[in-house]
Amino acid sequence: VQLVESGGGLAQPGGSLRLSCAASGFTFSSYKMSWYRQAPGKERELVASIASAGGGTNYADSVKGRFTMSRDNAKNTVYLQMTSLKPEDTAVYYCNAATSWYPYDYDYWGQGTRVSVSS
Asked: Where does 14-112 show beta strands of DSSP type E?
């Protein structure tokens, strides 16, 4: 199982970045996919999630209206389009895949991609 994030980097306040997470080694379309982030000195927090085949999304209040999560089940990839970036969006962003098939829970993480927002 692999989750490989990409697209992080340095952006100016008000700028945009697009993160990608390429998945392999599991049935991607059956998994709920999420983006989490962890800022220095803070706990990891959920940013956005998207349901498996149906594609319904949820967002943290702090990113609603600015971030958009999407998935391409044909490419086994999820995306996080980030716009109107703020310095407080600076964090390492992690991709997560999760599902439950009774009696087991499956939960996978990527290695993270760093996003820095600064002028």
From this structure: 17-24, 32-38, 45-50, 57-59, 67-72, 77-82, 91-101, 104-109
